[in-house]
Design goal:
Length: 355
């Protein structure tokens, strides 16, 4: 039987079949004998074949979000597969999301042509200085070409601007532990009651509450009938509804060809939200040094004017990237993130033969 993996607990995979039924399944051990070097050979969002309670085949993926496994540096961890976009939830405090983490996530998403929306959460908790810093961050990433939204999952502020960007798409939500993903999803889908936790006062860090990945359907018509957030959005912003084009944010294409994955036939378009465990760090995976520049939009833009075609933008004479950095056309934080990813490769933290 064919189905969609909608939940991954690490040991079991919940599969939604074409007839609307679900079943908890396991995987055959031979998956690890076919070159799959991921800690989770089956990921949420995978289209699979099931026989006798076992997943026997993974259909070709159109894309995925992947990172270095936090425990096994020579293996990968697939966050989600076959997604239309990612929402990276970040906070400038309570806890603070580093720009290095943001940039590494964005670079990995660029590699697989996954559009990213940066969602700045907990705006209701910020003081004047923190709000100013958040505006600076938003200005930086919007200038680069990423869509940014400011919301408060606790109060509901800004949720109306997020909803039209989710309709009809499979969206993976990711971010550091404690940034409010579960609270946000509880706001978007009342009744799912995802667990939340307080921030550690001692370290201003989040504590893991989500321990597995799960696809959550967002029924917009049902929400409209019960007068929920979607209904309020439709009533308050009718001009948005006049064109489906407004539901798709502009997305500039990168220079480097995307990592090759074969697309399967799209299933019936529904609105799915993928909840994932919080991430403390984001180790990038399966990238060659010469590719990394192409996953930083502004760095690639200036690299075309470098004197040497194979310029690494670290020490070469006539480097247009370092000149742009000196003239503040490239943010120092973004350049430092680029350098950190080059260092990963030099230290042997990548593996190039992942499937």
């Amino acid at each position: 039987m064919s189905g969609l993996v909608i939940k991954n607990t690490g040991s079991w995979y919940t599969v939604l079949f074409d007839d609307g039924t679900t079943a908890d399944c396991k995987i055959k051990g031979n998956f690890r004998l076919r070159g799959i070097r991921s800690t989770n050979p089956v990921a949420v969002g995978d289209h699979v074949e099931v026989a006798d309670g076992f997943i026997t085949e993974i259909k070709d993926r159109k894309n995925y979000i992947i990172r270095k496994s936090p425990n096994l540096s020579k293996q990968s961890h697939i966050i989600a597969a076959n997604v239309d976009q990612a929402v990276l939830v970040v906070t400038v405090n309570y806890p603070q999301t580093s720009t290095t983490f943001i940039d590494r996530f964005l670079a990995s998403a660029e590699a697989y042509r996954v559009p990213v929306i940066l969602l700045f959460n907990k705006t209701d908790l910020l003081d004047a200085d923190e709000r100013h810093y958040q505006e600076l961050m938003i200005n930086l990433y919007e200038t680069v070409g990423y869509q940014c939204l400011q919301v408060s999952a606790q109060t509901g502020e800004g949720i109306d601007r997020l909803l039209p960007l989710l309709e009809g798409k499979v969206t993976v939500f990711s971010g550091n532990s404690g940034v409010g993903k579960s609270t946000l999803l509880n706001t978007l889908v009342p009744g799912i009651n995802l667990r939340t936790a307080e921030i550690s006062d001692a370290h201003n860090t989040g504590m893991h509450t989500t321990t597995f990945s799960e696809m959550i359907p967002l029924n917009l018509d049902s929400d409209r009938r019960r007068g929920g957030a979607v209904a309020r959005w439709r009533e308050e912003t009718p001009e948005i509804q006049s064109s489906k084009a407004n539901l798709v944010p502009p997305y500039p294409r990168t220079s480097v060809p995307p990592k090759q994955t074969s697309a399967t036939a799209d299933s019936e378009k529904r609105t799915w939200l993928i909840d994932t465990p919080g991430i403390k760090g984001f180790g990038t995976f399966d990238m060659e040094p010469e590719e990394i520049c192409g996953y930083f939009k502004e760095i690639f833009h200036f690299s075309k004017d470098c004197r040497f075609r194979n310029c690494t933008h670290t020490h070469e004479p006539g480097c247009a990237v370092r000149k742009a950095l000196e003239e503040h056309y490239i943010a120092e934080s973004r350049y430092n993130s680029y350098l950190s990813m080059l260092e990963d490769k030099e230290e042997g933290k990548y593996r190039s033969d992942v499937n």
